[in-house]
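Is fe (ii) ion placement plausible here? Inputs below.
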Amino acid sequence: MDAAKEPNVSLSGLLELVETSSIASIKGTVSRILALISDPAASSSELIQLIELDPPLAAKIFRVANSSYYATSKTISDIHQALIWLGFDTLKEIVLTQKMSGLYHGGTPVCGYSRLQLWRHSLAVALLAKTIYRREFGEKGNNAYAAGLMHDIGVIVEDQLLHQEFLQLVQSIEDTPQSLSDGEISLFGYDHCLVGKALGEHWNFPNELTEGIGFHHNPEGASEEHRLFVKTIFIADYLMFEQGYGYVAMPLPDREILLQYVRDLGLQWYALRAIVELVREDLGKIEQKGLIA
Ligand SMILES: [Fe+2]
Ligand SMILES: [Fe+2]
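Reply from A.M.:
I modeled the complex. Tokens:
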């Protein structure tokens, strides 16, 4: 296509476009659920209230909760029951996942890219980042799940709001391999990390999450406080790309960077490989149950 047909949009202009687009419809629920996820003292009553005020969300939760993936022995038809059977942490993740999934419908598949592929990638990174936190660091990993799920939110913003240019970019990466960020910077003047970071700041996401989104391709740019967290997202992103859960034909960064971050986190490769295998099995089950779309 002719790039001149669509004027370049500045980063602040793009944020303004977000606010008047359908993307903004998730802002309230997503911001509240993220606050609940990042607050260890959060109570379940706010979560229940949030779900009860959103009947389409509640319906989606029942569909997911009653799928055999969660293997509950009862039919769940009430949010209080869902909380008891699934637990507070799982229910928070389901709410975030269901709310986010709405952004990834439709679109135009091009050169192996589609919104569904991007969503599949986001889920894969979320599951891997969470499982690393659970199994290796003995933590719940809800924040890692949220950051994994949302780390490429800037990509879906570009796809939705700069659609023709974005498709042109995907095509150009296929023709001339380069990182997505490099291609975005030459075309838009910013990359999806900057878009996601600006959105996170604008929507008041917790700092850890905003840094996870903003620096997932460059963890060294994150604050010291959150750098190991961001490195976990980098590792999960890298490994799931390598496992076939990518969404665009870009070359992976130098493997030495991955190896360094794995050392920085004190992770053992045999443990990491076992976790990747577990996540692959899990994703297979999720896809089989039709829970990805
Ligand atoms: Fe990315
Ligand atoms: Fe990614």
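Short version: The pocket of fe (ii) ion (ligand 2) is lined by residues 121, 125, 151-152, 237 (CB under 6 Å).
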